Structure formats: C-alpha cells, structure tokens
Amino acid sequence: MQIWVDGDACPNSIKEILYRAAERVKVPLVLVANSILRPPPSKFIRTIRVAAGPDVADDEIARRCEKGDLVITADIPLAANVIAKGAFAHNPRGELYTEETIRERLSMRNFMEDLRSSGIDTGGPAALNRKDRQTFANNLDRFLIRWLNYGL
After folding, report:
1. How many CB atoms lie within 10 A of CB 47?
2. Could you report the average pLDDT of every consecutive run of 10 residues in the chain (152 residues)?
3. What residues pair up with 88 in beta bridges, in sequence order?
4. How far apart are CA 18 and CA 39, in angstroms?
5. What are the beta bridge partners of residue 32?
6. Which 3 state secondary structure label does DSSP give 69?
7. Closest by Cα among 63, 36, 74, 30 to 52
8. SS3 category, 102
9. What separation in angstroms does the CA of 102 have from each of 30, 84, 109, 136?
C-alpha cells in the first residue's frame, strides 16, 4: 500500500499535506517527477526522477502502482489508468475519482480538448485556494482512515 504523487503537477501546499500524512500514518509516499524534488527527510517519503517529456511521470506511476494504492493527480487519463488497475485516484482539490466519475471526467476533458484544438479559449482551472486545500486534507484523512482500518 503506497501513495503515488504526480510530483511535477502537484501543488506544493498539497505536497506538504501529503508529507505530514505519510509521517502520521506511516505510509510510503512516492513522488514521481521529471524535475528534482526535495521532500523533507523521512523514511516514508522518496522520489523517483524520470526523463523529461509529456506523460513520462504519468506513465511511470501507471506502470508501478498496484491494486489498492492511492494516486494523487489532477491528470484525468492517469486517474483512469490507475482506477482500471484497481488503484484509487484522488485529485488535489479533494475529489476521489471513481469508475463512474472518471468516465464523465474523461468525456468532459476530451470535449474541452476538442474545443481548444479548434481555437476556442476554454481557460483553465481556478487557482487552488485555502478551501480547496482544506477539502483535500479532510478527504485525504477520511480516505486514509478507511484505507488503513478496513483495507477498502
């Protein structure tokens, strides 16, 4: 049972919450990124550096994660891949993706990508705010309690 983090895309404030959670519940946390990350020293936290390029970190997480692991990512295709493997996917805003919600998210992502490719400016997600961070921390705690006590 491990927590995998899409380290390049994960906001630093969310990483800090994850570092504290890994220490508190003594669960391995692995950050995968193509840049150098400097997490706090801990026997529960490690990093994997991958080559630069689109989706290289995502592909590495999808390859390495196992059934029952938790993946922290805002990347919808990565979330879909890990859910298909029997892992869990949680985004940095506090949403736990499910088999049902990920299909809807994939459809919306593909629709927005089609709009962007036709020249329409769709904007981007709003900046992560204090409420988002609190929602993430609360939902992560709930998930970890269930995960550790009941094995989900």
Report:
1. 16
2. 93 97 96 95 97 92 96 93 94 89 68 66 76 95 89 65
3. 70
4. 10
5. 6, 48
6. coil
7. 36
8. helix
9. 23, 10, 10, 18
Burial of 144 (0-12, 13-18, 19+ CB in 10 A): middle
DSSP 10: S
CB contact at 8 A, 122 and 108: no
- Which residue in this structure is represented by tokens 């391995």? 28
pLDDT value of residue 150: 79
Q: Token digits for 148?
A: 């550790």
Contact of 78 with 23, CB cutoff 8 Å: no
Reported as half-sphere exposure (CB side, CA atoms, 13 A), residue 8 has a value of: 18
| Whole-angstrom distance, CA of residue 135 vs CA of residue 113 | 27
Q: How far apart are CA 65 and CA 56, in angstroms?
A: 14
The structure's pTM equals: 0.86
Each residue's pLDDT tens digit, 112-143: 576 567 777 666 677 889 999 999 999 999 99
Report the sign of the C-alpha dihedral through residues 136, 137, 139, 143, in that order: positive
Question: What is the distance between the alpha carbons of residues 33 and 70, in angstroms, rounded to a whole number?
Answer: 16
